[in-house]
Amino acid sequence: MDPTTLRALLQAVQRGRLTVGQALGRLKYLPFESLGWATVDHHRHLRLGFPEVILGEAKSVRQIVALARSLLRRGASVLVTRVDPVTARAVCRALPRLRYHAVARVLAHPAPPRSPQGAGLIAVVCAGTGDVPVAEEAAITATLMGNRVARIYDVGVAGLHRLLVHQPTLTAANVLVVVAGMEGALPSVIAGLVDRPVIAVPTSVGYGASFGGVTALLAMLNACAPAVAVVNIDNGFGAGYVAGLVNRAVSTARGGAPPDGPGIRLPKRSTRPAAGGPAGGHQGRAARVGRQG
């Protein structure tokens, strides 16, 4: 249950449109609901500003459907990450309201708005086309949180002239998510061009000595540029979520309206950024502050 819905419920009781018993019935599954094999956190939207997110990897169709249906019944947005096409088709047959984003491998409801409202911009940048799936996971996550997102793809260090033409967008963003595999150099380059936080996402794209993204991860952790923070390998969700929190905090500090998209409705007095993770074991984020070069 999001803050707007809860406020409307309390106002309905205050004005006599609902009895106390009816309101209690609607609040029966707040703050959580036990499904026997899983416990759905319906209170997370109130605490963190975004509902619990489902990690689809290693879950059955039945499990994903049950978790998503529980969230939908409470009026929450739904985001399911790491979903293969076969599983996605089966889930969408059971829950037609969900939309599958094949490139990002995520199921979402509602669809990301075409013109999200809210102050501030998040730039999602990726080095090569092989990194696009992870970048799209970040972009869709941030968009569902109510943020404006600019995508800048295929601008890696093998041709930096492709990146420099996007300088106005890079400098306009409150925070940047930079996704790269191979040697993982792009976040350092961008962090040296802008006075904004850069959330670096290493990907598993690359040949043998990339070690499934470990080479890019270590390069990003050792970045000379001081504004780089790093999330786990291929963790586009984590990067998009943190970027959304940063953009919310910056927008609020500047006196603008915080993002208020379909998946996030903030209490007007909320100014503290919060962190959370999806159900099912998404890796936590490893933040760092780079040394001076």
Can you summarize this structure?
By secondary structure, the protein is of the alpha/beta class. Helices cover 35% and strands 15% of the residues.
Any overview of this molecule?
The protein is of the alpha/beta class. 35% of the residues lie in helices and 15% in strands. The chain has eleven helices and eleven strands. The strands form three sheets. It has a five-stranded parallel sheet. Strand 10, helix 10 and strand 11 form a beta-alpha-beta unit. Helix 6 packs across helix 11.
Instruction: Name the poorly predicted regions.
Output: 260-293
| Overall strand count | 11
Largest sheet: 5 strands, parallel
Query: Helix segment count?
Result: 11
Topology, please?
Blueprint: H1 3-14, H2 20-26, E1 32-34, E2 39-41, H3 44-48, E3 54-55, H4 61-73, E4 78-81, H5 85-94, E5 99-101, E6 106-109, E7 121-126, H6 132-144, E8 148-152, H7 161-164, H8 167-172, E9 175-180, H9 186-191, E10 198-202, H10 214-221, E11 228-230, H11 236-253
Parallel strand pairs: 3-4, 7-8, 7-9, 9-10, 10-11
Antiparallel strand pairs: 1-2, 4-6, 5-6
Which terms would index this structure?
5-stranded parallel beta sheet; globular; single chain; disordered C terminus; 11 strands; alpha/beta; 11 helices; 293 residues; 4-stranded mixed beta sheet
